[in-house]
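User: I need a structural model of Pectate lyase-like protein from Actinoplanes teichomyceticus for a docking pre-check later this week. Nothing fancy, just the predicted structure tokens so I can convert them on my end. Input:
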Amino acid sequence: MANRTAPLATLAAVLAAAVTTVIWQSTPARAAGLSPFDIAGRGATVPFTEIEAEAAATNGTSTGTDRTYGTLSSEASGREAVTLDAAGEYVEFTLTKPANAVTFRYSVPDGRTASLDLRTGATLIATVPVTSRYAWYYGSYPFTNNPGDGRPHHFYDETRAMFGTTYPAGTRIRIQVSSTAQSPSFTIDLADFENVPGPIGKPSGAIDVVADHGADPTGATDSTARFQAAVDAGAASGRTVYVPPGNFTLYSHVIVDRVTLAGAGPWHTVLGGRHPTQRHLAAGIYGRYTGQGGPSRNVTVRDLAIIGDIQERVDSDQVNAFGGAMSDSVIDNVWMQHTKVGAWMDGPMDRFTIRNSRILDQTADGVNFHTGVTNSTVTNTFVRNTGDDALAMWAENTPNVGNSFTRNTVVAPILANNIVSYGGRDITISDNVVAETVTNGGGLHVANRYPGVTGPTAVAGTWTLARNTLIRAGNSDYNWNFGVGALWFWPDQGAITGATINVTDTDILDSSYAAIQWIGNQTTGLNLTDVTIAGAGTFALQAQAPATARFTNVRAGGIAQNPPVYNCVGSGLAITDGGGNSGWQAANPYCGPWPAPRWNNPTTAPTTTPPTGNLAAGRPATATGQADIYAPGNVTDGTANTYWESTNHAFPQSITVDLGQNRPVARLVLKLPPAAAWATRTQTLSVLGSTDNATWTTVKGSAGYTFDPASGNTVTVPLTASTRRYLRLTFTGNTGWPAGQLAEFEVYAS
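Assistant: Understood. Predicted structure tokens for Pectate lyase-like protein:
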């Protein structure tokens, strides 16, 4: 078959005659129950064995499988958990390997502090405290701890316990509600069992923070100054600084430079704490910022845990496990939990590595390479339950170059993406497994978004997205009326052009909404090779912006919607056929109201019939410009909650709807979003019509129309009856905003 570039509808006809053999890595049904640890050769190598509560013995109640935002199931691994709501109820796990410790993920109602028993048979192993202190957020970003703000989320937390002995494979370990529990209500998501090795001893010649500098291993007093003195002595003498077993309280940062800080292991050496009055200060290990003589260099931090006490998200607070700038430095085998961000690194800095680590239960990102971070990596690291992007790069004002995220396993970011790079040049994201995106993001994201990501900091060079597996990724953005793709591209602040983005050997399994999405401005230079799409809750492809791509061996099956493509940009989606493609083509792509997703049931859905009466419902809409994500397709999607906004400060601006054929038209109904969100404004506009999209006549002269919340922000425009296929509104003014704005463009024959 000859290679060619063609609009999607044309390409579908070309491929219809091709005979393709599809080899699936997973069927959609298998993908629906797939664990992120089932993918051989990809993701992090972890020291634990994970068992889902729904796969264990229990006398509790399943939460059911659901991905609706704001439910316990939606944030659970595997999208299901088990609730224990009576004394004596339990989840019982059978060990498959010897273990002496467990980490379990749970949820309790807000405001609760309680405990759960660990048992084997009649033997009580331990009573483990559980709390809602680090969970339960409300409202929209930046979120609060106030239930009155509604929209609760971030339900789960994690705790860990040592057994005191090693139990062999086959032992049954229960997590059980105590008979003395008051008003019990506990939800168990999973348990990670491991065999923790004994403490690592002090290296020869090392400085001991306890023996040599008087740090307090009981945590009763603040040891920040004593840690700093030990670290400074180690840097001056070239000696390792050893932190023996203990729980050390730090009220502020320890600044490291040219030093190795080594613990006895992340289950034995724990740093934590927060200043009792200055809440913006908390335990953390920081490099020197550029303005403070940084970046720090030749730092190694290994074999310890930083478990903080951060219970809210305040973006201005430096309450991260790691921060500042570190070049030629390594974080190795570190457990980061209950801080704001595991590692927020502010460059310029070069050759920084996080490896063999765990990042759990953050209020914001897991890792963010921010501003001029180069040749740096996160590898072989397990990340779960972050409050924002799990692994992120953000090239704000200074380019990020040559960075990579490789061989990581990333599960259940509560907000935003599993893995993302906002801008950057020559970026690699490879051999990762990502799962359970909850909302406002996808599994893998490439974007020109957020302040400072434009021009020299935008997406550039050669990007490698190779050998990644995306499981139940992508989900509903609660601000939009559509789902976010498992793999998605958003050139928000400028088109992605001039870069080469190679997506290879990638499996997109059981996507919650679309498998692949484009939104915003144009994306070019995209190559997809050997990509499997096995199951999608809505579409295989979701084109809300122009994109140019080459597809080779891109095979799709189990797509809920038929046709399997959402496309409101027409020929703006141009895909070059590299051969071997199947299952995602559509001679007549869909453009209309957003369908509800069909999770775990990837079968053909009936086509949607446009609402009776409104001739524009579901029809293609185009515009002379758009701001941010506010695309013209929003005006025909059947809901006033989404809207089109033209390019700002650029009147006149126009939006056009294609009715599909010449139809009699006599009335327009124009809407803005509901009254609760928008104030009164007057927009000046005219109405033009055409039968061929070439010759236009004025249907209604320019006039001012007032959109008033008191009347539902709705305006009716009567027209002289005529027959038109295309109708165009041209905006020349708006008293409420320097752009044309429209939520619904309805057309009626009477």
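Before docking, keep this in mind: Residues 224-237 form the longest helix (14 residues).
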